[in-house]
Amino acid sequence: MIRYEGTLYRPPSEADSLILQATIGCSYNECTFCAMYREKRFRVRKLEDLEREIDWARAHLGPVHKVFLADGDALMAKSAFLGALLERLKAAFPDLRRVSCYASPQALAVRSVEEMTSLRERGLSLYYLGVESGDDDVLLRLKKGVDAAEMIRVARKAHEAGVKLSTMILLGAGGRAGSLAHARESARVINAIDPRFVSTLVMTPVEGTPLFEEAQRGEVDELSPLELARELREFVGGLELSGAVFRSNHASNYLAVNGTLPRHKHELLAALDGVLAHPEQAPFRPEWYRGL
Question: Rounded to two decimals, what is the model's pTM?
Answer without folding.
Answer: 0.95
